[in-house]
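Operator note (shift B, R.M.): manual run for histidine kinase requested after the automated queue skipped it. Running by hand, logging everything below so the morning shift can see what happened. Input copied straight from the record, untouched. If output looks odd, do not overwrite the archive copy; leave it for review.
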Amino acid sequence: MSAHPWFAPLVKRVRTANPYVVDTALAALVLFAVSLQWIFPDEGDDRLTWQGWLLGAATAVPLVWRHRAPFAMACAVSVATPAQALYHAPPPDVMYAGLVVLYTMAARGTPWQRRFMLVGWTIGVSLVMTHKESPEPFEYAFQLMSVACAYAFGVLARVQRAYTAELEDRARRLERERAADTARATAQERARIARDMHDILAHAVSLMVVQAEAGPVVVRSDPARAEAAFDAIAGAGRDAMAQLRRILGVLKEEQRNGTSPQPGLKALPALVRQVGESTGLRVKLNTTGDPLPVPPDTDIAAYRVVQEALTNTVKHAYASSATVELDWTEEALTLTVTDDGCGPTGSGSGPARPGGGHGLIGIRERAAACGGEARAGRGPDGGFRVVVRLPAGDRQAALG
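Run finished. Output pasted below as returned.
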């Protein structure tokens, strides 16, 4: 553990260093190890000749090309090492360059190169030891174990490199998937905000337009009614601004600081009353069944659906009355908005009023986002009808 603080940075520096510099340093280190018998000669029977040193150097110098031409380097060392052993002046006590070759081939070679080098060096070591004068039994085991260990370390390095590459690739894939999920969530949130702003502004502007058109007509004949119309315009504008602030407050996370939540089913009576008072449209709200708690997104969607349907009635239907019905069951909440007007196509077949917008598309998108469905068309007694079915969900799940 005490060696870890300095050993880990050293390993990282070696891995990130120029491979040619590392190979040259490795070749110099092996050449130094091979030359130790000449630098510190002992009193043994092994002869020391300059031809023997050249053969030893021939096992070390090819390591300079370990990364540039690994298989050619391995072949050169594989020829020089047994030549030095057979020349016997002196014989190699440890196959330094051979261990590097086996490690390199096991770590970076192709499958056939790895098998060729492992089998070749195992056979070569066995034959050289057989022709050695008076070999000790432990020498067989030492040389063969050296071959096996060097190859095993190379295999471990290759497996670790492949595992690291797989982890890095998986991390890159997860990062791409996370970015894609973030982009999808952002797009969905923008679409939701766009729908909310469309519904709020379309509703408010529609009420303002109706009152603004009526105001000049009655400004002289009925000043009180004209004043009420202008008050309705101001009220619709203030309500739109308040709801827009709520939406923007959610974006800025101001809801934690007391920003009121978006309106839901509990605000429908106020919406119906506002539409009736502002436009003169007779709007009734009927509820059947026992109301159930619903998820927040369904609660907001239900309010926006009714708001958009009434906006379409005011803008396009030329209706005198409308009915909002809430039908509760254990499985779903069904919203039905019906008017007695001419619908979105004039008197049944004529052109729609300019600027019809995308209200029905927004209603369908809201219903689909909550797992529900929406239908729109002419009512059974004329007029226009919008029917939206939203899943109410399990009572306990909604409460939880």
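Quick read of the result: Residues 254-259, 345-357, 395-400 have pLDDT under 50 and may be disordered. Residues 13-135 form one domain.
Leaving this for review. - R.M.
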